[in-house]
Amino acid sequence: MSDAGGQMSGTARKPGVARSASAAYIGSMRQTPSTDQRALRTRQSLLDAFVGLILGRRYETIRVTHLVAAAGVGRATFYEHFRSKDDILLSAMEPVLLALATAASGRAARSYVRSTISHLWERRSLGRTILNSATGPIVQRRLAAMILTHIARAAPADIAPSIRATGIAAAQLSMLRSWLIGEASCTAEEMTDRMIDCAKLIA
Predict the structure, then answer these.
(1) Among candidates 156, 134, 129, 148, which has minimal Cα distance to 51?
(2) What pLDDT, in 10s, does the model give residues 142-157?
(3) Which fold has domain 84-202?
(4) Domain ranges of the chain
(5) With the C-alpha atoms ordered 11, 16, 19, 25, is the resulting torsion angle positive or negative?
(6) pLDDT by residue (tens digit) across 35-69?
(7) CATH class name, domain 33-82
(8) Which helix (H) or strand (E) holds 12?
């Protein structure tokens, strides 16, 4: 392709014109759906498929073949986004676990933790399924690892940080589980305070 001032006419293109043409080309690329956007949609489709499946069957019976069929993607596509079934479980729980780990550090904004706890209550059927099943230990290990990154320097010297992080994770998830399945009754405000109070365990 060429224009009136292009090389095919034998006239050298001015630098300013070249830069303008490049900017216009890049701008037009930004207006088209990107590969990243498609990847995000595919990832979300897999997460949605996982949530739908785990609400209807036990975690241990779910296979990658079930996930890709429900999401309408190929098996290879699944592994472009997730390493395993456990990986997609933890990705689905990541926003909740991040809020809990930050609360345990003592540096979380209360409104942030409160919003997460309220959202968890609104989707309590999913929360109950995940925390009151074989997935519980998987979730607890990830939460403990996330807490550890926050408290490693703050933990008292007489207790290994990893042990303290595990204890905090177990306490947080145990309280949430009891609340979500109806064993303990409290408001979202009170549960938020309990999650934040766990920061005192590293004092």
Answers:
(1) 129
(2) 999 999 988 765 555 5
(3) Tetracycline Repressor; domain 2 (1.10.357)
(4) 33-82, 84-202
(5) negative
(6) 689 999 999 999 999 999 999 999 999 999 999 99
(7) mainly alpha
(8) none
